[in-house]
Design a protein that fits this description.
Elements lengths: L2 H27 L4 E4 L22 H7 L4 E5 L9 H14 L2 E6 L11 H20 L4 E4 L9 H21 L3 E5 L8 H11 L4 E6 L4 E3 L4 E2 L3 H8 L3 E8 L13 H7 L8 E6 L6 H17 L2
Parallel strand pairs: 1-2, 1-10, 2-3, 3-4, 4-5, 5-6, 6-9, 9-10
Antiparallel strand pairs: 7-8
Helix pairs in contact: 1-2, 1-9, 2-3, 4-5, 5-6, 6-7
Length: 306
């Protein structure tokens, strides 16, 4: 038995039956909100990186199902270079076999669609259009991208370039039947007023926001944060279609110790297009499997009173 199989089988025996039962109840009571497993919860390095769990990406659907998830997100950095149709087919077969579906393809970090330099912006757009094609082939519903995280030009100037780039990428995503979601991912994008201005400037039906619970770093050295993440979510809510429900640690009652999930999900009642709640466990005090399950269970709990 290899390491991946051991992780899967051990996980299923520990959590599988209870998790699946709980997940089914969640779907019945909240049919419009889908809980997804974000791969960073289990794999915290890019392709070929030295990750202690050593989980093969193709096994993620099977592991996700054993942890009680019916949906998974994908991360571009986890896929092998020179991606081919055979690998995509294998992933689709693995998802079908496990009984899970794709939700969001996470992209970013390989160029900025809001770059001031038109050549760099064009290159970034070409890169992410390629990943939109991959997302479509994996039957994703949306693609996440980031812009505005690196502060190199003034606020309004960056907004203008970002509007141009996001609009072009959004139109391409629409041609593939996908939503394009911009994440608050530090820098200008962690300023909710900048993000809402971006959404208004782009003004495309398929473009919205992926709201991250904890990415609120406005500036570095020294770190300066948006002062109230709950207020930030209130401002972003009209545009939020998916979230990254970040978690690190839990108290004895199963509550996350850094973010008030009940308060966040209460705010999301004013997000009319919110559908995907992505579990992203980043803690180290407990196993990644257990942290992912704890986060899912906490989301289910707050959804029962949604």
């Amino acid at each position: 038995m290899n390491r991946s199989e051991f992780i899967y089988k051990s996980t299923f025996s520990a959590f599988g039956l209870i998790s699946l039962c709980s997940f089914d109840k969640q779907l019945l009571s909240n049919p419009n909100i889908k809980i997804t497993l974000t791969p960073w919860s289990l794999i915290r390095s890019g392709y070929g990186g030295n990750d202690p769990l050593n989980i093969d990406l193709i096994n993620i659907p099977k592991v996700a199902k054993s942890l009680g998830f019916g949906y998974i997100d994908h991360e571009m950095f986890h896929f092998p270079p020179n991606l081919n149709q055979k690998y995509i087919n294998n992933m689709n077969n693995a998802m079908e076999s496990a009984g899970v579906k794709s939700a969001v393809m996470l992209t970013g970090g390989k160029g900025d669609v809001g770059d001031k330099d038109p050549k760099k912006r064009t290159k970034a757009l070409a890169t992410y259009k390629y990943w939109i094609d991959i997302a479509s082939a994996l039957n994703c519903k949306a693609v996440r991208n980031v812009c505005g995280e690196n502060i190199t030009i003034p606020y309004k100037e960056k907004l203008n370039y970002a509007i141009q780039g996001v609009k072009e990428l959004g139109k391409y995503a629409a041609s593939k039947g996908l939503d394009l979601l911009i994440e608050n991912h530090n820098g200008y994008s962690s300023d909710p007023e900048w993000m809402t201005s971006l959404m208004k400037g782009v003004n495309l039906k398929n473009v919205g926001i992926l709201g991250d619970f904890t990415n609120w770093t406005l500036e570095r050295n020294p770190d300066t944060f948006y002062p109230d993440p709950y207020r930030g979510f209130e401002i972003l809510a009209p545009y939020i279609r998916a979230i990254s429900a970040k978690s690190e640690s839990f108290d004895k009652n199963g509550e996350e110790t850094t973010t008030d999930f009940k308060r966040m999900f209460s705010i999301l009642k004013s997000a009319p297009n919110f559908i995907y709640a992505g579990v992203e466990f980043s803690g180290n005090g407990i196993s990644r499997n257990q942290g992912s399950v704890n986060t899912r269970k906490l989301i289910e709990k707050v959804l029962r009173n949604y």
